[in-house]
Write a structure and sequence with these properties.
By secondary structure, this protein is an alpha/beta fold. The chain is 44% helix and 17% strand.
Amino acid sequence: MNLVLTGSLGHIGRPLTGELVQRGHDVTVVSSKPERKGEIEALGAKAAIGTLEDLTFVSAVFQGADAVFILIAPNGFTDPQIDVKAKFRQIGENCIDAIEASGVRRVVYQSSFGADLDSGTGPLLLHHAMEERLNRLREVAITIMRPTGFHDTLYNFIPTIKLRGVIAADYGEDDKVEWVSPRDIATAAAEELEALYSGGANAGARKVRYVCSDELTCNQTARILGEAIGKPDLKWVRLPGEQVKERMVAAGMKPSFADEFVEMNATYRSGRLAEDYYRHRPVLGQVKMADFAKEFAAAYNRI
């Protein structure tokens, strides 16, 4: 198959590119960074260097693709020069316009668990809106991927562990967390891209697939990470939302965005965020927290 992947060579793009190339597909990776060209080609893929904010570029890249994997990472929450929501929406609209203009008939979109909800989820509402836009497409088979909480977000707690000897957030202790490895997401995405093709065009077909590697409490997570870094008694403490907001704002995040993250975590802690996940509970992936803990320890010891 001729496959186009957006998202460059990030935590998901790199393993996904490698897996699809190994399976014999012709893969084009979209990246806004010219310096990624050599890395992309070294994996056996073609590089398309340009920005998803350029509709002409996106439409040209999508032309002739059998299937497209769309990943839009909302970032820049601490950069006052970036309108995160407007940028996300523009990229999303460009991808949809390019799908229609190029005649692509198969799409896998990386969304998020909680994107089924239309309120109380803060930044995840961007994915909810994008899912709704995609579902308005006709004659296009779409798989919505809804991964759970990324292992990689745990790196953000390294400074707090070093400074205070704990993991701290506005959820914690015995709150349950569903974790996923980017490698398990990549494997699932590769399966969905191939399934859409082998099953025929299936015009208008819709599928939602949740992806998760581990279901643990916060303290179970802390214990696994703590053992890996030589702190077997590491705890995950729960802080008041207002205190977490103050820390986010102190780190440079706009107060309005901090409010949204606190809102999202409150919905998570209530169990509402994961309700649909548990209604459609997937088979857990292969990369467990104990596997990630080795990578976490290496990062912890480098800092």
